[in-house]
Amino acid sequence: MERVVVTGIGLVTPNGIGTSQTWESLIRGESGVGPITLFDADERYPSRIAAEVKGFDPAAYMPRKKLKEVSRFIPFSMGATKLALDEAELDLSDEERERVGVFIGVGLGGLENLERCTLTVAERGPGKVSPYFIPSLIANMASGQISIEYGFQGPVFAHTSACSSSAHALGEALRWMQAGRAEVMVTGGAEATISPIGIGGFSAMFALSRRNDEPTKASRPWDKARDGFVCGEGAGTIILETLTRAKKRGANILAELVGYAATSDAYHITKPAPGGKGGARAMREALRDARLDSTAIDYVNAHGTSTPAGDVEEARAIADVFGQHAIDKRLWVSSTKSMMGHLLGAAGAVESAICIKALNTSLVPPTINLEDQDAECLLDCVPLVARERRLTHVMTNSFGFGGTNATLIFSKYES
Prior knowledge:
Blueprint: E1 4-13, E2 16-17, H1 19-27, E3 34-35, E4 49-50, H2 73-88, H3 94-97, E5 101-105, H4 111-124, H5 133-137, H6 141-150, E6 156-157, H7 165-178, E7 184-191, H8 196-204, E8 234-242, H9 243-248, E9 255-264, H10 277-290, E10 299-301, H11 308-322, H12 324-327, E11 332-334, H13 337-340, H14 347-361, E12 363-364, E13 387-388, E14 393-400, E15 404-411
Parallel strand pairs: 5-6, 5-7, 10-11, 10-14
Antiparallel strand pairs: 1-2, 1-8, 1-9, 3-4, 7-8, 9-15, 12-13, 14-15
């Protein structure tokens, strides 16, 4: 079975435009959270903070005349993809482009355009609806626009599984390549839900932090004072190639994608199963897929959203899977959502890119705001400041509403 490697990554996040800018911000322990500026989040909103992408020029990544055709998540994905392709330095023939696939996971799609159009219909009538309305918001249009821009004619679609969307996209791209159906896959995720209906909806579920006076301290995974997650936005794209192709062209190989698993809790639409059983099975199956013992994993980039129930259940699941390796704190665990908020459908791809950077720099980003760790979490969660450590195998978890779970394992490339 063909080995699959990473040759390019691109990030557009609340902590920076580009992989280097994002990574350096995370290693410094900087928060990308602040008061909402994308709309007037007045006192009617219980949560008035978010992790917005700042300083992003969509016209730098797609033709200005096409911007009227898209919702905010699509330029994010186009930007991340261009950055990833630039790093990968792919040189594709027309024949090869026919077999390049694009899997971009998206949770909610163009929520802000859905809201805007609903108001237009109510106030001005259906005759005023933009002909670009539907194409601007459907989830598969991130992958569709990428395919059109670069002429990629292989399988092109979106994986939509809430907060696991882009982790599933990466994992399914791996499977596609292992089956010999493609030599190159452009894969990742994008999301942009910081809108009145998005923030209002998550607030109605009591899912969001209400620490409005201290936005940079609001996202605090595993801390006793956590009170919900912070909405984030952005995109991450990862270029996957077969090892044979990458070596043949002399590509700079960043990591190897060695393990993937997907499970379901089959328990509740929003609550994790007791003990994080579904997530634990995903981790175990990913380890089996990678043919690794649990003691081989050096670092886990956890789902770690900063919710009261979710953090504890994931910590229990990790302790269950890794046993003494975790309890004795030989395994390091952190949540970068403490700095960039929860990017929902884009989280899995962005956090995979972070894992790849950790492998290549021997640096582990911290869990900021972890000042008083919950006694039910027995893990070393790398509180407050980054650490240095040689890493060989790393894992990332993505768990979503509906009980969906995905786990990915990346390894340092050894020729």
